[in-house]
């Protein structure tokens, strides 16, 4: 049965609440919550992998201090600064460049997922900003040379490989890594929303990623056994 407009709106709001999604305004009206802002910075490029495979786009993520992949950003206090001003401040600390972020760059707001190491009252704000390739390259240089948090909170910037080679690596392998919170979901949804990767290519990459992840999980027990052997004291003849 087709829902009436009012019923559809109510149903849509229920689905948003169930998924943990809320508007920027709703989030700022919540009391007793912490806020974190992160941004996906990207650009177009004419570069080619090995001189023959188009890369098409550059997307920046970072290896965090905890070994997880995520987008640059951090905790923001809306009582002291706007979300966008706070995110710009965090980018200066992590990337060494004060990149102006505006409300127009805002994409979505969610409660932190239950699986996140952060408390459930943390609200996540996600932004997407397109830049020129030259700006992205300068940003990468600054992140490794002048950023205050480089080598501590941030272990390095990484580019997302948006291609899949004949051997099945590239984006599938990247997606099989460990991400903080809902960063992987944010990445995949952004790829679809901006049409940076076709839904068919992305589906294929994610399917292959599952197989890569399964092989990695199989390796862990063997490595654990290896460490157990090393931990056992060596027996000496008496």
Question: What would you say this structure looks like, in words?
Answer:
- With 238 residues, the chain is α+β, with helices and mostly antiparallel strands.
- The protein has one domain: Nucleoside Triphosphate Pyrophosphohydrolase (Alpha-Beta Complex), CATH 3.90.79.
- Helices cover 40% and strands 22% of the residues.
- The protein contains seven helices and ten strands.
- The strands form two sheets. Strands 1, 2, 5, 6, 7, 8, 9 and 10 form an eight-stranded mixed β-sheet that branches. A two-stranded antiparallel ribbon has the order 3-4.
- Strand 5 and strand 6 form a beta hairpin.
- The chain is globular and about 50 Å long.
- GO terms for molecular function: 5'-(N(7)-methylguanosine 5'-triphospho)-[mRNA] hydrolase activity; IDP phosphatase activity; phosphodiesterase decapping endonuclease activity; snoRNA binding.
- Belongs to the Nudix hydrolase family. NUDT16 subfamily.
- Its cofactor is Co(2+).
- Its EC number is 3.6.1.64.
Which key terms come to mind for this protein?
snoRNA binding; two-stranded antiparallel ribbon; 238 residues; IDP phosphatase activity; 7 helices; eight-stranded mixed beta sheet; disordered N terminus; Nucleoside Triphosphate Pyrophosphohydrolase; NudT16; 40% helix; U8 snoRNA-decapping enzyme
Bulk shape? globular
Oligomer: single chain
Report the top-level CATH class.
Alpha Beta
Structural class comes to alpha+beta
Query: What is the string of SSEs from the N terminus onward?
Result: HEHEEEEEEHEEHEHHH
Number of domains: 1
CATH architecture: Alpha-Beta Complex
